[in-house]
UniProtKB/TrEMBL annotation:
Region annotation (Disordered) ranges: 335-361
Pfam families attached to this UniProt entry: SNAPC1 (PF09808)
Biased composition (Low complexity): 345-354
PANTHER family hit by this protein: SMALL NUCLEAR RNA ACTIVATING COMPLEX, POLYPEPTIDE 1 (PTHR15131), SNRNA-ACTIVATING PROTEIN COMPLEX SUBUNIT 1 (PTHR15131:SF3)
Name of protein: Uncharacterized protein
InterPro entries (UniProt xref): SNAPC1
């Protein structure tokens, strides 16, 4: 049941309506503020020896997040403020986000929920629960297990403690899976105001009928490239100096996402592959029936890639879109026949993923 307006609203005082918090006027700046919070915390976390959550509270207060609850006092508007803010924090905790981003979003959700004013007179409306889809709830409970790299391991006990407090306090109100769109409204922002998206408004005004010209495509591509370059520059952080780095003593920089190598996924894959080869008794130095079966499987996969090249190859328009994977597969099968080895299962060794993991560690 929806809340009734507060007495201040009934007296005719100016107050923000609930639709403001579901509109682009609130949603888009709030997303930008979360992004700024994540970057600021990561920058200080990589340079400070302070306790992780104490450092987060310092960054939280420095950016003025503690005053957000004073934005509105009307009951219905406060309900919209809390629900929308919780959703925007939760959307940065999904599995597709980087582990560090998920941790900071969880810290923000926890801090925002637990700093609701409780001793005001007259009392302000406060939320008792946080709506969360069941798939996001399950991924949140598994978040501590993904913090395995050296830079993320100190965050693990704090994440576990926060999740334990939220679960034991029955804060989470489970709703159907996110793909069923159980939230109301289904998408954010629900209302779009042209004044808040002037660039999109200008683009719509200049849009021409028919297909875009080559010049329009080039201008759009250049604008997108400039935007990515500015974002990378804004979100870059200092990296450890490396031999042969920038000249004249300039500090080396990297993007904060590249400082989080996929060590867990790589380690799990290597362990699973080793277990599988050991279980079937495969040995490259001792040919056997298992070895012959592996050769047959490798040749079947390679033949399938060749068939795909014959059917899909003519559809590719540029040289850069060729079947580079088939060439690597052929080389792996050839090395298996000449030197022994797992063939296609050995493609990880020497690949870009492994070299990236080693360079980032």
């Amino acid at each position: 049941m929806s809340l009734a307006p507060s007495t201040s609203a009934s007296r005719g005082d100016v107050t923000l309506q609930p639709s403001f918090f579901t509109s682009s006027l609130y949603v888009n700046p709030f997303r930008d503020d979360i992004r700024t919070l994540i970057h600021a915390y990561h920058e200080q976390y990589s340079q400070s020896s302070e306790k992780p959550f104490a450092l987060f509270k310092k960054v939280w207060r420095a950016q003025g997040w503690e005053w957000l609850h004073c934005k509105v006092f009307d009951n219905r508007s406060r309900e919209a403020l809390m629900n929308v803010s919780h959703r925007l924090f939760l959307e940065r905790t999904v599995k597709t986000e980087a582990p560090f981003t998920r941790v900071v979003a969880l810290f923000g959700l926890y801090a925002f929920f637990n700093t609701q004013p409780t001793g005001s007179a007259p009392p302000l409306y406060s939320m008792k629960q946080i709506l969360v889809p069941i798939d996001q709830y399950s991924s949140l409970l598994l978040l501590p297990t993904s913090l395995v790299s050296e830079i993320l391991r100190p965050l693990q006990p704090y994440v576990s403690h926060i999740l334990e407090c939220l679960v034991n306090s029955e804060v989470f109100h489970i709703i159907p899976s996110s793909d069923l769109n159980a939230f109301n409204p289904r998408q954010l922002p629900r209302e779009l105001y042209l004044d808040s998206i002037s660039s999109e408004s200008a683009l719509q005004k200049s849009k021409k009928a028919g297909r875009p010209t080559k010049r329009d495509k080039a201008k759009k591509a250049k604008a997108a490239l400039d935007g990515i370059d500015k974002w990378m520059h804004k979100t870059s952080v200092p990296s450890h100096p490396i031999e042969g780095g920038p000249a004249f003593g300039a500090p080396a920089t990297t993007h904060y996402l590249l400082a989080q190598p996929p060590t867990q996924t790589l380690a799990e894959y290597k362990a699973d592959k080793a277990s599988m080869l050991d279980a079937i008794g495969f040995s490259p130095t001792h040919p056997s029936g298992v070895h012959l079966a592996m050769e047959q499987v490798n040749h079947d996969v390679l033949e399938r890639l060749r068939q795909l090249q014959e059917t899909e190859g003519p559809k590719l328009r540029t040289e850069s879109m060729s079947f580079a994977g088939k060439e690597r597969a052929e080389r792996a099968v050839r090395e298996m026949k000449e030197k022994g080895g797992p063939g296609l299962l050995g493609l990880l060794e020497g690949s870009g993923l492994e070299s990236l993991e080693e360079s980032c560690s």
